[in-house]
Write a structure and sequence with these properties.
Helices cover 61% and strands 0% of the residues. The chain is built from 3 helices and no strands.
Length: 84
């Protein structure tokens, strides 16, 4: 994994690296390896993840077919809390 540091802006590069790691699932993998997971717990977790994925896929399919309305995009007109 590689991140380019531009204009000596290490904070921005670190944010980009964390985002990439999050997307790749590195943090989830580290958490999973921190402690032993029983085979029964692993099976139940994998089954729950599969159910979640299939529901998400079915929801997206229904949205494409127009059976359920799509989520409204968030507006960027909200005032930022960090601006103060």
């Amino acid at each position: 994994m590689q991140v380019i540091v531009r204009d000596n802006n290490v904070e921005q590069a670190l944010r980009a690296l964390k985002k990439k790691m999050q997307r790749e699932g590195v943090f989830r993998e580290m958490k999973a390896r921190r402690a032993y997971e029983k085979p029964s717990e692993k099976r139940s977790r994998q089954k729950a993840e599969a159910i979640r994925r299939s529901r998400k896929l079915a929801r997206k399919q229904a949205q494409r077919e127009g059976l359920i309305p799509r989520k409204k995009p968030r507006t960027a007109a909200r005032p930022s809390a960090r601006a103060s």
